[in-house]
């Protein structure tokens, strides 16, 4: 499998034996001292080494990492040198030392669990958030996503997770109800090009674009607002909705309402927990409600776990709610209104 865009990190066809081609741009001595493979050829500062197996590469990779050469690139080729596979030292090391995690991503061995989101005023189902779960129950998403980042596979994982979510929408969620799908801004380099796969699968599964809400996962810093605006605009041009996640923490602030103008804002669960008991949290929530109404943005409270929290949010006028008090994620989602 190959890709037209190496930045996506979606190539997986690494030759199990062949040649390592390196072109040190600095720290030449560190490079040459670290490579524990047979030198086959040297020409114009290009060094070609032979490796017999992935296992034989590991001592060299470990030595290069010890020299802080994590982000430097190698090229692997097969024995015929018919193609080149460029990869950073760090990414190659992670894939070779965690082959079971890499294989889960390569094969797409995961599924979407769906957690209900309701209208807070009447309890009716508004939609569901698609949450990634691996088919191997021993591997949690909390383990898979950090590995994907370290191994340069986060774009592949993000892309395949989006497809799994769209498939779950087609199979389990009626038309007219929303499906919330997480995405990582750092995996989308050129929005119109990088999201073409997503738009293709939406069409493939015959899903109404208006039923999809693409939600920024705020594990990343919002350092390039213009880029995120371009991503939002691309989704919106295709008739999809966008949401800003975890408002109140990190870089997801109330000021982002004006800059990004999402359809929906999700309030971080840290402000929902015991909100009925905390005057400080209530003050923040009331400010968010006021600002959202000014901009005609809908609010979603996530992480609702108790009746006290639910009742306060209901009275405060929050639009949508999500959390264990309402319903847990499941493969077969609850489709009945939630009794208030």
UniProtKB/TrEMBL annotation:
SMART domains noted in UniProt: EAL
Superkingdom of origin: Bacteria
Record-level Gene Ontology MF annotations: cyclic-guanylate-specific phosphodiesterase activity
Ranges where the EAL domain occurs: 94-340
Pfam families: EAL (PF00563)
Protein name per its UniProtKB record: EAL domain-containing protein
Species of provenance: Pontibacillus marinus BH030004 = DSM 16465
């Amino acid at each position: 499998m190959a890709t037209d865009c190496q930045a996506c990190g979606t190539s997986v066809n690494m030759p199990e034996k062949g040649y390592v081609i390196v072109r040190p741009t600095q720290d030449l001595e560190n490079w040459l001292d670290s490579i524990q493979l047979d030198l086959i050829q040297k020409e114009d500062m290009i060094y070609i080494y032979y490796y017999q197996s992935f296992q034989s590469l590991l001592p060299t990779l470990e030595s290069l990492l010890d020299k802080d050469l994590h982000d430097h690139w190698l090229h692997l080729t097969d024995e015929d040198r018919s193609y080149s596979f460029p990869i950073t030292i760090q990414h190659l090391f992670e894939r070779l030392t965690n082959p079971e995690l890499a294989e889960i991503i390569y094969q797409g061995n995961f599924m979407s669990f769906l957690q209900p989101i309701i209208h807070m005023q009447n309890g009716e189902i508004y939609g569901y958030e698609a949450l990634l779960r691996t088919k191997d129950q021993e591997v949690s998403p909390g383990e898979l996503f950090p590995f994907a980042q370290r191994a340069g596979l986060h774009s592949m994982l993000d892309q395949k997770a989006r497809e799994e979510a769209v498939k779950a929408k087609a199979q389990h969620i009626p038309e007219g109800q929303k499906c919330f799908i997480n995405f990582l801004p750092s995996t989308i380099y050129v929005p119109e090009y990088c999201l073409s796969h997503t738009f293709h699968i939406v069409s493939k599964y015959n899903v109404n674009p208006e039923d999809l809400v693409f939600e920024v996962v705020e594990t990343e810093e919002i350092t390039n607002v213009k880029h995120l605006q371009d991503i939002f605009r691309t989704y919106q041009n295709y008739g999809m909705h966008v949401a800003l996640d975890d408002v109140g923490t990190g870089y997801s602030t109330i000021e982002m309402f004006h800059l990004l103008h999402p359809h929906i804002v999700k309030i971080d669960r840290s402000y929902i927990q015991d909100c009925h008991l905390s005057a400080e949290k209530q003050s923040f929530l009331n400010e968010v409600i006021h600002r959202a109404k000014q901009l005609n943005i809908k609010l979603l409270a996530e992480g609702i776990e108790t009746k006290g929290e639910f009742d306060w949010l209901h009275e405060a006028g929050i639009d949508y709610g999500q959390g264990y008090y309402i319903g847990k994620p499941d493969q077969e989602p609850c489709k009945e209104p939630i009794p208030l």
